[in-house]
Every structure is written in structure tokens, then in C-alpha cells.
Amino acid sequence: MSEREQQMKQDQTVRAGTAEPSDPPAAERAEQAAGTNEAAPLVAGADVNPSRIDQTAAEGEETPAPGAEQREGDGVSEKARQTVTPEKQADSSKQADVPKGGDESGSAAEGATAGEAAKNEAGVKAADSADADKEAKRKAAAEARAARAAAKAKADGDGGESAQPKPPSPNQPLLDRLVDILKREVGEDAVESAWINPIGDIPTVSLRAERLVDCARVLRDHPELQLNYLRNVAGVDMETHMEVVYHFISLNNKINYSIKVKTDREHPSVPSVSEVWSTANWNEREIYDLLGIDFPGHPDLRRILMPDDWVGYPLRKDYVPADPEV
Amino acid sequence: MAIRTEELLLNVGPQHPSTHGVLRVVVKLDGEVITEATPVIGYLHRGTEKLAENLNYTQIIPYTDRMDYVSAMTNNYVLCHTVEKMMGIEVPERAEFLRLIVMELQRIASHQVWWGTYLLDIGSLSPFLYAFWDREIIINLFNELCGARLTYNYMRVGGVKWDAPEGWIDKVKDFVKYMKGRLEVYDRLVTGNEIFLARVKGVGKYDAQTAIDYGLSGANLRCTGVAWDLRKTQPYSLYDRFEFDVATAEEGDCWARYKVRLEEIRQSLRILEQALEQFPPEGEIMGKVPRVVRPPEGEYYAAIESPRGEIGCYIVSKGKAEPYRLKFRRPSFVNLQVLPKLLVGETMTNLVTILGSIDIVLGEVDC
Amino acid sequence: MGGMFSGPLTWQNAIVWILASVVLLFLVLGFVTYAIYFERKILGWAQARHGPNRVGPFGLLQTVADVAKVLMKEDIMPKNADRALFILAPFLAFVPAFTVLATIPFTGWAYFADLNVGLLYYVALSSITTLGILLGGWASNNKYALLGGMRSAAQMISYEIPLVISVVGVVLLSGSLNMSKIVDGQEGWFWNWNIVPQFLGFVVFMIAAFAELNRTPFDLPEAESELVAGYFVEYSGFRWAMYMLTEYVYMFAIAALTTVLFLGGWHAPAPFLEFIPGIVWFLLKFAFVVFFIIWTRATLPRMRVDQLMGFGWKVLLPLALANVFLTAVWLEIFN
Known about the structure:
Chain A is of the alpha+beta class. Chain A has helices at residues 2-15, 24-33, 39-47, 50-58, 75-82, 86-92, 98-156, 172-185, 212-221, 280-291; strands spanning 191-197, 202-207, 229-238, 241-249, 256-264.
């Protein structure tokens, strides 16, 4: 298991500067580093390997992560856990059944580790020499942490056994109804996907760009929805595509909804909804100005914040200013 | 024989005493009547949203101060609130009380600036001084609390940075009493004045449907009778613990907006009274927050009621310490859209009156 | 003193007359200096602040410093401005302001000309200032100045009519347009002052006077916050000083006129106080009128141009006419 040991050592060296002392996962890892078995490095590898952040970030994004208890809050570690099973998520803060979790994440760790063993080699060689003292210190700290973690685990009960998926959001029926209405009024192909945004339980729907204006009219006029107040229109440059996000609320029902429209990056184009809600007028101009998304149907699409003769779209991720010294 | 008239293209330029900042309105005049008005903005665009993509959340807080610089506390709050919601951080009670108190004080200060400058635009010189005299008290309170008079950088994700110094709460209580009396002075000087009423009644009128369609918020929406105040309808912070009314008016013109804002000052004083009563004598000012603030992956839009309207913060996070995309929904930006519609058919004088009543701050319009 | 001015036009007389006028000019300039100072002080006190208090004891030399600064400024003329008119306009505005002072009697003996049509002379000359303002707005080649000039012309012309008609009542009561005779008619106790029988006329006169002076609440032509100083936005240095001077000399003239027409001129409020020289009473009443004008500026907002015009034609003019009618009826019945 040399490569796993190396990995673990590298972890610890890198984490020396960035670890949060009260982290149960770190406690677990260190405890295992203090001299247990092969399961340890697997978990260690799965939890946080800063060098892996780059790799996994490039792998593309999937489902949104649950918000609640991620004290560590590291997206990479969560994704690694998520791609395994939902139960591993429950585990990560509870530490009730380490070996089980260790196995599960081991597979993920392995998969990623194999991919970058080469990368680790170089770093590990430097890490080795400094390790001796650090190991000793870390053992002591780790034992304290482990004690705390164990106490916490006991207090939490057997959270690790809660293997069921998160309970459905209370707004799920609203989401279903929304999708239903849109499908019936506009067309089967209007809705691309629908989900509940776990932060805030907001029904979110992704629509097809061509159907957007029709959907907009339905959203505004349908008696059950009455989404007459468009709160916010935002453009987001996800590196693979671009999105325009609309946030609504119904002043009567006080329910928040969120609509997304995806468009590609080469020629981004989303039909304008400024006829349906006048709020969108300047918001779309701003998105056009800063991100370059075209809005056919907009009455007056020109730059609003940048000077009129500006070249380029500043908010894009690949924007290079013409004058780099500025 | 018909008289040939030409349209006059007047540039109410970026430098103008009454545009509340660097706003340019290109106005086509026929005599004194405006036939078309086009606002041109962007003179104060500083690229806050782009900068935010390279800064961690605590570093963005000073940038929020400078967006709506007249009302910096609410800007701080919207960012911290969004991040806290995303991370599920609980803010300790004392910190939340402090936040609420400074936000309401800020609301009063902002409305004082609005009142003073609005009357200056209308031609009355003295109310400006009165308003700023009273605002000095609030600013000095903030100075004591966090060391700054205008851009406070006071709130942090999970709480506030500085605790209230000794005696500060009593000073705020004194101010609340003082300000109640001052509102009557304001009314005596201005609100009943015939000339003022003739200037603002019936000017810049719109109905509730237009307001909702244009996404107006704050006093601009409530002046048409729509009782939509985010502190009541989507409560955040501790607003659901306090009793206060939502200020509305029916007419939908400048006079209605004036009344609504003055009433908001009264209601803020009411909230402050209650908050100061219930202020916890001790407690933490900062919750349990990791050293590096990393919201989990996901996105969230949260909005609060700033003195100008609904200020919102939309964050897309990839789990890093910096936001992937941070967008601010600025109330002045959205409210300013309705200006061209309101100005058609008005005289030049009313341009200033209407623009003042929408209450914009260019730092927020341009972000 | 009037006798000094009647006589053949010899060199000697001419020099004496010119010198006397220069003395008045300096007195008026002195008034302007300290009127500006007091305006700033009074506005300051009304706004809970001090006003100028650094330059000289109690800030008394503030205006002197300001005038010195203004005179030292570069003379800027916009490139496309109409040169001749641009230069002419401030003087055209100022000269009538000064010349109307000729017929105002400051005391029983201190006057320059005892015209039998003194009041008419005043009103006639003061209309010429409107021309100067209009020209200034046009010649500046600036849209804001043009708008200001147009507004100002409209305002001043429309308010001259109530101004003149409101004093017709006084003329009827005194039986003469001669200012000295008007003052003589107010001798005795203060209820003989024309303000008492002619109160309506006084109110209309005061409001119209504010409009003539372009002062708040009728300061639209100089609406700082909208037109960025209106018709004199392109003027700087000495020419701007001339416009400022015009405004304040007019304030002097209107205050003096109000005192003479309505407040009893140089007469004391009670006969037993007549031992105090008339000039003192004149100055006291005059100072009160000036203070009232400044006080209004500190308090009231500005009227909008269409409301202003509507007010002048639809409210003030009928009131002034009603005043004349009532005065005539009263005179007919009781005299």
C-alpha cells in the first residue's frame, strides 16, 4: 500500500497548514494514521486531498450538494462522498461506522488516487523527510480529536444507521404542479428538468430556450401561479455553457420559484421576456453587456454599464482585458 | 400658419446637482415638456461582481459597503445573510440584535439623506441641514460602534465584528426619543407647506400594476397601495419578533412616496424601541463559523428590505472560498427603469422631482 | 437736497451731481456687501450653523474677500457666444437697477429727483432688467441658460402687472404718483401707514416683488438644482458679479419702495417719536423688509414654473384688481 501511504503522508503535510482542528474527518484520519490499518488512508484520501481539488473540479458538476451540516464545507470531499452513496454523507459528520464508510469511500479514493499517483510522487518525496516530528505531534492532537469525535458520535446516536435518503421537500408538490402546468399549457418539451433547490427549498425548473416566452406568459397569468413579480434575472457563465436564472415570487401566494435557461457558450441566446415582465428589460441588458448573451426580442439591447464601444464581455470566465496592465 | 418648432436635446449630464450621483438623462424637450428621456448609467461601474469572483466572502464585505453607500449596513447584511443561509450557520442572538438595530438606524439615516436632498432639489435650503444634523447623531453612533462613518464593514458571516461599547445602547435609546420629536419638526417645516404640496401632488403617478410589472420595490411599490415589505412578508433576522406596520399610501405619486418614507422612519423608530428593550445584556457576537468560509456547492438567492427596496444577493458556489458567481440585485437599478415611462409629458422641473422621489444611489445602480 | 439737482446744467452742477450719484453708488455697494453677508449669516442661523465667521471679526470681511476674488478671475467667454450681447447683457441688467433709486426719498430732504411720476418711473425702468436677463441667457449659447432666460422673462413680465396694479390702490389713496407726497400722506401714527388700509395690496405687492427679484419661492430662473444657475451659468468673474449686484441692488430698491409706499417712509410709528431722525426709521423698516426677504428664502421651497405663471395670472392679478376696485368704491363712499 505504498502509494496509499504516500498519499496519506502528502495529505497530512498539505493539511498541516489548512486543517480545522475540530474536524471529525481529520480526527479520524489522524487516528488511523496513528497506526491502524489500510482502511485509514482510504478514508484519508477520500476526505480532503487538496491536490485533487483541481482534478475533480475539472470533471464537471452534478447534483447540488445539501447545505446542512457540512462544517468542513469542501465541495470536493462532498462530491467524492456523494458519488458513493447517500449514506456516506450522513456518515461524514457522525463517524459512527468508520470501516463501512472507509470501504465505501475507498473505492472512490482509489479511483481518483490511481489517476494522480504520478502527481503525488513528486510531492511525497519532499514530504517524507519532514514527517517524523509531525507524526508524533499529530498523534497527540489526533488522539484528543478522536476523543472529542467519539463523544460527539455517541451524542448523535446512531446517525450512521440512518441510511434512508433525505426526506422529500415540502415544496415538492408545488414543483410537480408547476411542471404539470407548464407541460400542459406550453408543451411536453418545455421543461427540461426540475428539482428542488435544497437551500431554501425552492422549486427550480430548467426550461428550453425556445419555449421560454410562452412559459413566461403562463407563469405570469396562470391563476395558480400568478408569478407577476420578477425579482432577479442573473446570467451565469458555467464554463461549459451559460445560464440565465430568473427568480420569481408571487405577491399573493408568497412562494418563490426559480427558472433556469441553459444556452451554449459559442452563440448564447435566450429569448427576451421583457414583454412579459418589464423588470427584465435592464436586467437583460446588463447580462448582455457583461456576459454577451443575446436576447432576441428585446426592444433595446445595447450596453448599459460598460462604455458603448467596449469590446468583450467582462464577466465571462475567459475574459482577457484588452489592456492587461489595467 | 403653423409655427415650426424644433426639439431640444438636453443632456442632464453626469455632472448635475440633482441627479444624485453620476447619472445622465438624455432628454428631448419640446419647449419645457419632455417628449422622451433616456437614462444612461454605468459611470460608476466598478466591476464588483467580477472582483468578487477572486475574493473570499469576508473580503467582499467592504465592497458591498460601497455599492449603496448611503445604506451600507443593509448591503453588508444581504451578503452575510445569503452565505449564512447557504451554510446553515446560526447567528447568536446578541449579534442578530445588533444587526437589526444598526439596520434600522441605517434606514433612518438613509431616509434622512433622501429627505434633505429631495427638498434641496425642490428648492428649500433648510431641511437639508436639519436632516444632516440629525443624521450626524446616527453616524456618530456608528463611528463609536465600528469605527467608520459611511462604509462600515461591520457584519461578518456568522455575526458582527464589534460588540456595542459601554453605554452605546443607552445612546441609541436617547436618539430614538429625540428623533420622534424631530419628525414633528420636519412635518411642520415641510409636510404641510402649500408650495411643497403643489410641487409633489399628482407628479410622477403610476399604479400598482405598473409597479409590479417593473419590479419596483421599497417605497416605490408601497406608494401604490401594495403592502409588500420583505421584513413582513419574508421575514429575516428578528423582524418577526417585533410589531410594526408596513407603510403604504394610495396615490402612487411623489407625495405618496414622501409620506411612505416618512412613515417608514416612524416605524423604524418603533422597531428600535422594541429591539432596545429586548436587547440581550450579554452574549456572543459571532457564531461558530469555520475559519475559511466555504458555502457548499449550490446556489441561493436571498433578499432583504433595504431603504431603497429589495436588495438581493444571488450566489453560485462551487464549494470554494470564493464565489463562482455573485450577483447583486440592486433596488436602485431596477427602480430606475421606470423613469423614462414617468417622464414623458412632464416638465423639466418635474424631472428633478420625480427622480428624487425614486430615491436612487448611483453606487448601487452601477454596482 | 432735491433743490441741489434743479438748476441749469453747468459744468459745476454736473460735477456735483455726478459726485452725489457716486456717493449713492458707494452707499448702495456697501449695502450690497453687507446684505450678502447678512443673507449668509441669517441662512446659517436658520439652518443651525454659523455662517461666515472667519474672515475679519465675525466674518464681516467675507464679502470683501469674495468680491476681491471674483474681480481677480479670468474672464471666460464661451467660444460660440454672441460677444457683443454677452458683454452687454450684465450691464443692461444692472443699470436700471441703479437708476430707479433716483426717485426714492430716503428722508424728507434726501432724494435725488422729485418726479411727479416717480412711481411710474420706477416701474418702467425696472422692466428693462428683464431684457438684460433674457439677453444673457441667449448670448451664452447654452441650453440651460436659454431655458433660464426664457423662464425668467416669462416670470418677470407676468408679475410686473400685479406689482403695478397693487400699488394703484396706494396711488388712489394718496392722490399722487409722487413718492414724497405718498410718504407725506402716511404721517402720524402707524395706523396711517398704507399697509393698514391697503393690506391686500401689500400682500400682492410683496408676492409680486419676490417674483420680480427672482428670489425664493420664485427663483426658478436661477434654480440651482435644476438649471445649474440658469441664465448666468456661463458668466464668471466681473460679469457674474454684475448680475449678483443687480439682484441685490434690486433688493435694495424694492425694500426702499416697500418702505416708502406701505410702511410710512421715514415717519415714526408714533408722533412723539419723531425726534429720532427720519433716516433711522427708514433704515429700520428697510432692514426689516430685507430680513423678511432673506427669511423667506431660508424657509420655503420653490414653485414650479407653470404653477408660478398660473398663480400670477389667475390669483394675484384678480386680487390686485379687486383691491383697486374696493379702494375706489371706498373712496367714493367715504370721501
